[in-house]
Write a structure and sequence with these properties.
It is built from 6 helices and 7 strands; from the N terminus they run ααβαβαββαβαββ. By secondary structure, it is α/β, with parallel strands linked by helices. The structure holds S-adenosylmethionine. The site of S-adenosylmethionine (SAM) has 20 residues, from α1.
């Protein structure tokens, strides 16, 4: 794909999410409460490394429900997203709760280089948005992770029909994400399918929380 095609694709993706997040100023599309995976990741972290505060990277933070909740625990959080509208809501949610985020970064995930600076890398339903670059980027995240680092990853899978337009998405086959974490300590892994009223279709997800040995 040419450079200008890539730029166009990024702009189109950002515009789609901006439209969704910006449609109603006072409604958080995915809610203001933390996701189940965020709560599970936090409780596993606290069991595994009691008394330590992780440095958290939330890739594809959306409107900030998980970033803000992690930060409300006193954890240092970097929140990254391609959507300006999502990040505006992330900042508003943080302000409303008097929570400080270390960094709120407007970027394509692909341009945010993996590093060993993070103890908890969290990606809730965002990495499949990287399309054909998804698994290569995930590999780089894994290589960069220091021992003891937790990854909490939820990605769309091919188990159900999914959204009507899957162009540009990388959907994992059931079991593929788990296999990718071979050699890590698997703490929690599941495959699930949910009905999405908005699309009238079933979407499926592979999800895991794993610790680098
Ligand atoms: C389904 S939403 C999930 C948001 C959030 N993680 C949550 O669970 O509430 C997917 C998010 O990923 C972001 N996203 C998708 N592709 C991205 C990319 N290539 N770079 C940065 N953000 C991306 C979207 O803007 C959107 O905020």
């Amino acid at each position: 794909m040419s450079y200008s095609d890539q730029c166009e694709q990024k702009a189109a993706k950002a515009a789609r999410w901006d439209q969704r997040f910006g449609a109603d100023r006072d409604k958080w599309v995915f809610g203001r409460r933390p996701s189940c995976m965020a709560q599970q990741a936090a409780s596993l972290w606290e069991e595994l490394r009691p008394g330590e505060s992780p440095v958290v990277l939330d890739l594809g933070c959306g409107e900030g429900r998980d970033s803000v909740w992690f930060a409300s625990r006193g954890w240092e959080v970097t929140a990254v997203d391609i959507s300006t509208e999502g990040l505006n809501k992330t900042k508003r949610l943080a302000d409303e709760q008097s929570v400080v985020l270390k960094q709120v970064v407007h970027s394509d995930i692909l341009d945010f280089l993996p590093s060993s600076d993070y103890d908890l890398v969290f990606a809730g339903s965002s990495l499949h948005g990287l399309g054909s670059y998804c698994m290569e980027y995930l590999h780089k995240l894994q290589v960069a992770a220091p021992p003891g680092c937790l990854h909490a990853i939820r990605m769309m899978s091919t188990a159900a029909e999914g959204p009507d337009d899957t162009a540009g998405l990388y959907r994992v086959a059931p079991g593929e994400l788990l296999a990718k974490y071979d050699g890590w300590l698997m703490l929690d892994a599941s495959e699930n399918t949910i009905f999405i009223p908005r699309s009238g279709r079933y979407h499926s997800f592979s999800e895991l929380i794993a610790q680098k040995r």
